[in-house]
Amino acid sequence: MAATDPRVSIQPATPPLAAGALLWLRQNLFATWYHALLTIGTLWAVVEALAAALDWALHRARWEVVTSNLVLLLVGSYPREELWRVWLAVAVLAGLGVASGLAWGGWERGRRWQLPVVAAWLVLVPVVLAVLHGAGGTQVWGGFLLTLILAVAGITLSFPLGVLLALGRTSSLPVVRALAIAYIEGVRGTPLMVILFFALTALPLFLPPSVRPDLVLRAAAGLVLFTAAYVAEAVRGGLQGVPRGQVEAAQALGLSGTKTMLLIVLPQALRAVIPAIVGQFISLFKDTSLVAVWGLFELVGVAQSVLSNPAFVGRHVEVYAFVAGLYWLFCYGMSYASRRLERRLGVGER
Amino acid sequence: MNRWPARLTVAGPGNVRVRRVLAQALFLAAVAAAGAFVYANVTRNLQQLGIPLGFEFLRYPASFAIGETSIAYQPSDPYLRAFLAGLVNTLRVAGVGIVLATILGVVAGLARLSTNALVRMVASVYVEVVRNTPLLLQLFFWYGAVFLRLPPPDQALRLPGPVFLSNRGLVLPAPRPGPGLGAWLVVVLVGLAVGILLYRRLERMRVEQGRDTRPGLAAVVTAAAVAVAGWAILPAAPLVWSEPEMARFNFQGGVMLSPGFASLLIGLVVYTGAFIAEVVRGGVLAVPRGQWEAARALGLPPLLVLRLVVLPQALRVIVPPLTSQYLNLLKNSSLAIAVAYPDVLNVSSTVVNQTGRTLEMLVLVGLTYLSFSLLTALLMNVYNRAVRRGVS
Question: Is there a contact between A209 and B3 if contact means CB atoms under 8 Å apart?
C-alpha cells in the first residue's frame, strides 16, 4: 500500500511534538486555501450530523422496541427452554473460528492444522445443525440465529460443490468443462433473488412427490446452489496458483492423476483459497437477508414483523439501526480479520 | 488458464484417448439421467397440479394493474406486455442508477485518496458502513424509515427547486420538450462539434509549442456560448420548464418519482457507489508512484497529471471491475419487490401467483438477466482487445 500511495508525504527530521501536530494539521487539513474551506465546510457538516444523531439516539429514540424484542430478534421463536442448544452451537462455532484464525494466522506450527480445521468445519457444522434441529425442526429457527445458520451452512455445504465445479472447469475433458462453465456462468449471471424465487417456489416441482423440503431447507438449497458458483471461481484461482512443476513432480514420482489432484494440488490450492472464501462468506452473510422477501423470518424478516406490530408503529429507525449495527459488527470484524490474515499470509509464505 | 495435462500412461496415446472419450460419455450419461429424472418429476408434479407447460399463456390478458409503467400498459394487455413493462422499469431504475452511482463512486473514491484528512475520513466511514450492511436493510430503511414516513402531499416538504417530498414520493421540476426543441438540438450539436474541433486544435498547439492555450476551458465556453445563443435567437422555446405545484389532492406538473422508485434508486446508488469508490481507489493506487513523480517533474499541473498520466493508466484497471459493478447494480435491482416497485421480477412473481406458470416465468426472467451478463461479457472482450492493441 504505502509504496504505491500517490500522496507525497514530507517527513521532517524529528519535529517537536507540538510542532509535529501543527505540521500535520497544516499538511493534512489546511494545505491550501481551498483545502481550508473544504475542511471547515466538512467539519461543520460532520458536527451537525453527529449532533443530530446523538440528540436522536439519546433523547428522541425509543429503544424499548429493541430491548423488549431482543430475544425475538436474536433467536426468533426458538423455544426458550431449549436455548442451551443455541449456546452450544455458538461455542462450537466460536471454537472453529478461533481454530481457523490460529491455523491461518501465519505461525509455522499452525499451518499443519489447516486441513484438519477444514475437515472439522465440514464435520462439525452438520452436527451443530442436528443439535439445533432437535428443538422442534427448522420451523423454530428465526432471527439472527437463522441468519447465522443459513450463512454458515450455506458456505460449508457449497464448499464441496464449489471444489467439484472448479475441478470440472479446469478439467481437460471438454464435455465436463463445458457443463461446469455453463453452470458457473449461468448462476453468476442470475440475481440471487431469482435463484431464491426458484428455490422457494419451483424446487419441489423438480423432486419426487414424496420429497417436500420445508421453506428453510429450500432457501438453504438456493443459497448453496448460488454460492457454489462463486466458491468455484475462488477455488479455480487457487488451482491455477499451484505451480505446474508440482504436478509434473508428482507425475514423475509415479502418482496417478487422482492421487496427484488429491494429495498434491488440492491441499495447496485450498489453503490459498481460504481468504477468498471468507470474503464470500461475508457477502453470503449479508445476502441471507434476501430470504426475508420470500417470507422467512431471519434477522431482517423478524425486524419487519416487529415493525408491523401496532405497539411499535413508526419505530423503523431504532430497529434498523440495531440490525444494521449487528450486521456491521460481524461483517466489518470478519473483513478486518481476514485483511490482517491476508497481509500476514503474504509476508509468511513468499 | 492452465489445464491439468492428460495423464501420461505407459500404454500408448490411443488408450488415453479412448479412456477420455469413455469418461466423458459416462459423465454425459449421468447428467442426462439426472435430467431425465428431473423431467419426469416435473411432468408428474405439473400433471398432479393440473398446470400445463408452455408459453401460450403469455398471450392471455394479464388483468392486473402495474403501479407505474414507462410503456403504455393496461390490465387488458397480455402477460407478455406486463413482463415487458416490468423489464422497462428494471432498465429505467438501473440506467439512472448506473449514471448516479458512477458519479457518487468516483467522487467518494477520489475523496478516499484526498490529501485532506477529514475528507478522507468521511469517505471511509461512508464506504465501510454501506459495504458492511445488507442492501435489503438499506432499501427497507429508505422506504420504511424515510419515504413512507414523510408527510402526506398536502403537507409536503418543500425544498428549493421547487422539489416536493411527501409519502407519495419525490416530485421534481422537469424540462418538457417545447416546439423549438429539434432546431435547438441541431444548434447544440453544431456547438459541440465546434468545441471538439477547437479543443483538438488548441491541445495540439499546447503540446507542440508549449503554450498554455487552455483547450478544455475554451472548448466548453465555445460550446456553451453557441447553445445559449441558439436558445436566445430561436423564435420557439426548445424546452419548457415544468414546475410542480400542489393541486387539490396531488401534484401537477414536474416529474413524480414514486416512493418505491425513489427508495430503490437511492438505495442502489448509495450501495453501488461505495463499491465503485473502492474500484476507483484501487485503480488510482495501481498507477506506479513513479508515474506521478515523473509527470510532476515535467512540470505538469496536478489536474493535468491526473488527466494525461494517471487516468489513462488507471482506467485500464478500473473498467473491468466497474462493469461488473454495473451488472451487480442491474442484478440488485431485483430487490425491487421489497419496496413495491414493479420491476421485471416483481411483475413476474405476480404472474406466477395468478397463473401458476412458475417454470416458464423463471426461464424468461433468468434468460433476461443472463442475456445482460453475456452482452456485458461480450463488450468487455471487445474492450480488452482494444486496450491490448493500444498497449502493444
Answer: no
